[in-house]
Write a structure and sequence with these properties.
This protein is mainly alpha-helical. It has one domain (about 1-250). It contains 13 helices and no strands. It has helices at about 1-5, 10-30, 40-45, 50-70, 75-100, 105-125, 130-135, 140-155, 160-165, 170-200, 205-210, 215-230, 230-250. Helix 3 (about 40-45) packs across helix 4 and helix 5 packs parallel to helix 10. The longest helix has 27 residues, at about 170-200. The radius of gyration is 17 Å and the shape is globular.
Length: about 250
């Protein structure tokens, strides 16, 4: 089984890329949310789009645990409750759709999910009317559905989640903590769905995940340090920049 795991990654450069992406995921959970989205196209390149969602999911769950343990007292449960019902509905929609599409279409859908979040981000920055939408009753459910669908299809909820949290004017610690708890609930919910419906979780993949644990912890440590030294206004700029970069990677990879 170990040999099967090692065979999933073809050479030294691929191993370096895999561990770098694991570090990005750790950083994304404790500091710079959308830097983890940069890893999505690289994982799809290494393992194929559909199978990569299973590899990434367990890595995300490991990183989620690191983040929620560290930020266990700073999250807003009220924001999580607003998003969760429709996010779970979005998970089911993504689950059903994902059963009937091929790998190439899967890549297109992953790109669409990121670009949708990107489009919303541009709109929020350009339109003064957006600020008035935040208090509408439908606002949180709509974002919840988008995030649930995006994370099921390609672990790509980061851009939409960033838009939502930024629009709530949360400070950087509360932003990161609330995002970590919300995504952790979704990711752990996805484990049985991907195991029994999509069948893209495997023992060789889990072995690869365990091998990447030190790099997730390193990324988590770096994310905490970066978050502490970033001023609030620079934090917002970095988040927006990561959304732009992640979208471009998915378009041109």
């Amino acid at each position: 089984m170990v040999n099967e795991a090692l065979a999933l990654i073809p050479g030294p450069s691929a191993w370096a890329l895999y561990f770098l992406c694991a570090m990005f995921i750790g950083m994304s959970k404790t500091g710079i949310l959308n830097i983890g989205t940069l890893a999505i196209p690289f994982f799809a390149l290494l393992f194929g789009a559909r199978y990569s969602t299973g590899i990434v999911l367990i890595l995300l769950c490991f990183a989620d645990l690191v983040a929620v343990i560290y930020y266990r007292k700073a999250f807003l449960w009220d924001e999580v409750k607003k998003l969760l019902p429709m996010a779970l509905t979005g998970l089911v929609a993504g689950l059903l759709l994902g059963r009937y599409i091929d790998d190439r279409t899967f890549k297109v859908l992953i790109s669409f999910c990121i670009l949708l979040g990107m489009g919303i981000m541009i709109w929020t920055e350009a339109s003064p009317r957006f600020a008035r939408l935040v208090n509408n009753r439908w606002y949180s459910p709509v974002f919840g559905f988008i995030m649930g669908f995006s994370t099921m299809i390609g672990n790509a909820a980061g851009p939409a989640l960033s838009v939502y949290m930024l629009s709530k004017k949360l400070d950087k610690i509360t932003f990161t903590a609330t995002a970590a708890w919300f995504i952790m609930i979704l990711n752990f919910t996805k484990i049985p769905l991907q195991l029994f419906v999509w069948h893209n979780l495997s023992w060789p993949g889990l072995i690869l995940n365990v091998m990447a644990l030190p790099f997730i912890l390193l990324g988590g440590f770096l994310g905490i340090k970066i978050l502490k030294i970033l001023p609030e206004n620079r934090f917002r700029q970095v988040i927006i920049g990561m959304v732009v970069i992640s979208a471009l990677f998915l378009i041109f990879k």
